[in-house]
Amino acid sequence: MTRAALVPPAPVTAPATTPGPARRPGRTLAWRRSATPLLLVTGWEAAARFGLLAPEKLPAPSTVLATGWRLARDGTLLTHLLDSLTRAGTGLLIGGGLALLLGALAGLLRVGDDLVDPPVQMARMLPHLGLVPLLIIWVGIGESLKVSLVALGAFFPLYFNTYAGIRDIDERLVEAARTCGLGLAARLRHVVLPGALPALFLGLRLAIGAAWLSLVVGEQVNAQTGIGFLMMEAREFSQTDVVVLGLLVYALLGLLSDVAIRTLERRTLSWRRGLRAT
Amino acid sequence: MATRTPGHLTGAPVLTAADVRRDFGAVPVLAGVSLGIAPGEVVALLGGSGSGKSTLLRILAGLDAEATGEIDLRGTAAVVFQEHRLLPWKRVAANVALGLAGPDVAGRVARALAEVGLADRHRAWPAELSGGQAQRVAVARALVREPDVLLLDEPFGALDALTRLRMQGLLRRLRAEHGFAALLVTHDVEEALLLADRLLVLEDGVIAEELPVHLGPTRSPDDPAFGALRRRLLDRLGVPAP
């Protein structure tokens, strides 16, 4: 997971599509690309309807959606969703905040680099989900365990991208800013922060991905609320539709957060598509 | 570290350097350079590649903490580098206004951009500009600070030949209007003869030759005196005659 954090930022912009005749093949392609998923879902629905799939193994997608609607209406889904979101948010805030702080310290100051980076580099070799037994001994099986796992998962990608983002800033731009009379604080604000921002966004996206993953694992340990608890409880009563619904909710959470970050990224980093903007 | 003492305006040189030394490891690049630039004077600093021209300019700009010697700057300096060094995340006007304080920043920025012929590009991103346009913005960024001395580090070195000629013309015009002093680091003998009042040749870490240029304000490479001076400089720099 954390290894991926060092991958250079993916291009934010899709290759510019030329308007006019070139657009039509793109649209046809989009239809063709959605054909297989649609076919699979239809096949799944048909197989469930005709009894090819046992309902306790895999219920029909329409059943899952109906269950979702029922749980949403009686408020169960919202309660559990809010609890999961609180855990993810708290963990992300703690882990992400620490990552920004330590990443900036290591990226900006040589002494910070010497003191902070070696232990972080060593710790990232540990698979953080493998720490669950140790964490249970340390913080118990309550809320702290879930939040700690999320914080640990979010920390590494954001730390490495903060560090790399600061280190990759062109020294010549910093120099030019100095000749324009910018002091340390102004250089941080006008050169270092905007220069590191693309990497920070990449780190944030990876951190949120890691946070959801950690949440899924964390909520399977003695949770009393949350989407994970909903799924574990449903498993005991063989309510497969609720289990599948939980998976669907996790997937939607991941998708929505990614879309939100991408949108924010496109707005903030509009200078990167400067050639298209005018 | 070279000490920079901000001075007060007198008739004295606007920028003086005394016994500037700098070595990279065991290799001395500058072995005691001294120079002075009078107010409004354009001095070209010539030398082969690796002669330490740019190192000297960086020291004069206060960007080199490890050099020794005395630097005395009376007034303000601004720098134009070989690359434009515009911040890609700021629009053209914001780049020019970088670090600028005081009244009517927007008006001053607009006037500086108009002077380099880019008044209509103030909303553009640096990535949208051509190399010559970006370098003109860099000139505007220096100019808007109304410097007493402009430090130019091969400012047109990365441009194509035609753009370079236009930029040289622009610099002459701006200098006639504003009367700033300038130190122009270049390896282009013709450029130095076109723009400078005085030439310095940097060799073996010291100023090996100093040469006044008496060619008048409307100088052209077609002038026989220009040709003779160019030949003399090329000989000095070790370029054989064809």
Automatic annotation (TrEMBL), chain A:
Q: Where in the cell is it found?
A: Cell membrane
**Which protein family is named in the record?**
Belongs to the binding-protein-dependent transport system permease family.
Any one Pfam family here would be BPD_transp_1
- Which UniProt keywords are present, listed alphabetically? Cell membrane, Membrane, Transmembrane, Transmembrane helix, Transport
Q: Note down the stretches annotated as region Disordered.
A: 1-27
Q: Which SUPFAM superfamilies match?
A: MetI-like (SSF161098)
- InterPro entries to which the protein is assigned, alphabetical: MetI-like (IPR000515), MetI-like_sf (IPR035906)
- Record membrane topology: Multi-pass membrane protein
Which parts of the chain span the membrane according to its record?
91-111, 191-213, 242-264
What GO CC annotations are associated with the protein? plasma membrane
One annotated GO biological process: alkanesulfonate transmembrane transport
**Per the UniProt entry, what species is this protein from, by scientific name?**
Micromonospora radicis
Name of this chain's protein: ABC transporter permease
Domain ABC transmembrane type-1 per the UniProt entry, residue ranges: 81-261
TrEMBL record, chain B:
Q: Which Pfam families match?
A: ABC_tran
**ATP-binding found in the keyword field:** yes
Thylakoid among keywords: no
Q: Listed GO molecular functions?
A: ATP binding; ATP hydrolysis activity
- The ABC transporter domain is annotated at 15-229
| Classification via PANTHER family | ALIPHATIC SULFONATES IMPORT ATP-BINDING PROTEIN SSUB, TAURINE IMPORT ATP-BINDING PROTEIN-RELATED
Q: What is this protein called?
A: ABC transporter ATP-binding protein
Organism of derivation: Micromonospora radicis
What taxonomic classification does the UniProt entry list for its organism? Bacteria, Bacillati, Actinomycetota, Actinomycetes, Micromonosporales
